[in-house]
Amino acid sequence: MNGLHQFYQMKNSVIVFTKRHLYLSVFVFLVAVSALVYLPALTAYFISDDLTQVSFLYFNSADLLNGQKWDQWFLGILDGYLYFRPATYALTLVNFLAWNQLAFGYHLTNVILHILSSFLVFLISLQWTRNQLTALATTLLFALLPSHAGAVSWVAAITDVLCGLLYLMSVLFFILNRQRNTATRYAISLGAFVFALASKEVAIMLPATLLLYDVSFNFSRKTFRLSDWVKRHAPFWIVLGLYLGFRFLVQGAFGYRGTQLTVQDVSIWVNGILVKIVDPLITELSSESQWGLLAVLVVILLLYRSRPEVVLGFIWIPLTALPTINSITNVSDRSFYIPSLGLCLVLASILTRPIERPGIWVRAAGLLVLAFLSVGYGAALVSANLLFNQAGQVAEAIPQNVKALHPTFPPKSRLVFVGVPDRLSEGPLIYLTGFGGSILMTYQNPALSVYKYNKFPIWFDELDRTFFFEVNHRKVIERADLISALERRRQCAGASFSAIRWDFSKDVEGWDPWNQLSEYTVHDGALNMRSDGNDPYMVSPQIDMPSIAIGDIEITMRARAGKSEMQGKVYWLGVSQNDFSPALQMPFTIKADGEYHTYRVDLSRSNQLVLDDHILRLRLDPADDQAEIGIQEIQVYSHCSETQGEYCKCSP
Description:
Blueprint: H1 2-37, H2 39-42, H3 49-65, H4 70-74, H5 86-99, H6 103-129, H7 132-144, H8 149-152, H9 158-179, H10 183-197, H11 206-218, H12 226-251, H13 263-278, H14 287-303, H15 308-321, H16 340-352, H17 360-405, E1 414-418, H18 435-443, E2 449-453, E3 466-472, E4 475-478, H19 480-491, E5 497-503, E6 512-515, E7 517-523, E8 526-531, E9 537-539, E10 545-546, E11 550-574, E12 585-593, E13 597-602, E14 614-621, E15 627-638, E16 642-644, E17 647-649
Parallel strand pairs: 1-2, 1-3
Antiparallel strand pairs: 3-4, 5-15, 6-9, 7-8, 8-15, 9-14, 10-14, 11-12, 11-13, 11-14, 11-15, 16-17
Helix pairs in contact: 1-6, 1-7, 3-5, 3-18, 5-6, 6-7, 6-9, 7-16, 7-17, 9-10, 9-11, 10-12, 11-12, 11-15, 15-16, 16-17, 17-18
């Protein structure tokens, strides 16, 4: 009996030893593979939103540690977005305290989180499939999925990787608790859910995900007891209800668009999911190919419907992606991080076991496809990471080149940049946001004002502390010549020449009534009309006036309305515009006493005129309410008697 007992002890120790070695081997493998494919990202610089966050911490971390500006950091770092992600921003603060401006450290944190998430994928898929090969294949595909570059290689997307890690942790410990019910396992699962919610809003689908798992693997009509299921799942739904209540009562809505949803949103969302499923083989889907792919997926689901992991994987993808259905970015690479587990699980299950009892050749064919797919995923992931590295190089080079031109700036200088790239042509962001923060950190001076425009603005004030820079990819050129041109134009401010005159005593002079204007006729020496609403406007014929030269717009008109004053506006259309823009207008006050008055509108006061532009048309809003209107004359004045490029001459 003692010999038999010793045999069983040895057998059990071998099993434990083998399992521990398997887990250790998988983890070491994930570290090695991740280090290899993410090496370009590890050596990349910050881009876009990274610099918004890091620059804020650079100048405000001391205040945060003293308990100040928490509302700005945890709630207001991204203007216009209703986010509540305290866990993410707390980790970003820890990152800054550890690494300051060393981008490598932030990237290392993301890669470590991804390695841990990939290991959790192995443990979860092992529980679901009870097949080591399938679990390893699921893990390999998840670790190498090309779309994950959007989450792992972008510092600011730590929110997706952190939420993914906590999400998967909650799922794993819920599974383990179902196998052996302990308070510790359940508490870890529930706690991970709470922190996942504090990382990103997509975690709201976790209770539904856990219910999906339970139904897929544990539901039996014979043993089903509703009270047990309610007891097991209710705490997660209660936490979700409290979270949603907080978000709606305190913040009012979610994200950028709140709860708005249209049919088009759903269509774009479905297309986005399908593209992510076939990425990188196909990056765009027409409506016809979209329906074809859906049909193929339905056939695959029907063929493998007997496998719980395949059915769960198919449902997992849209279920966990549901919070992105009205997102401003739709199903982006980074938001596909959690849903991608379903894709990897389905692919691994089918490729490691194409049929229920595969022969050696069928199994070999499936594994060969898996190998090719893994190599293709890995190559595409490395390519994506190289693009992130390239974007980081551009983002780092521009401030350095500015610093080379100007080691210092006078106090409270204004730096105006044109040509700063928003993103690489292939995709990764560069400076869609964060450019101002990058310049401020470079000069360690938060008092600088940094502007990023498509064209240089026409400004006449404080030119002694204004600097213009033109960016071409990484090259930076200072445009001091434009400052000289603006100074010359400022000297001509007192000069005024009538350049265009429309006399409405006999004709409409080519002006067209575009909106809410009726009885549009010439009589009694004026162009008369009736405003039928609060947005009437008329548009001029084609003109060609250099923006550097344009002076006042002089309007002689009368108005009679039910109030003493109304507001008029003058809009202008530039060369690069397809239509009039709400941003390009100058308002003026109209006396509604029925008498003729002359109004002068100075478009330059809007600070929206730009250099190297010509004004092609004008739009006049003669009222902002119902009124009777008469216009005798409109004149356009010029401050320049002639122009040479951007240089203005005002001598008679």
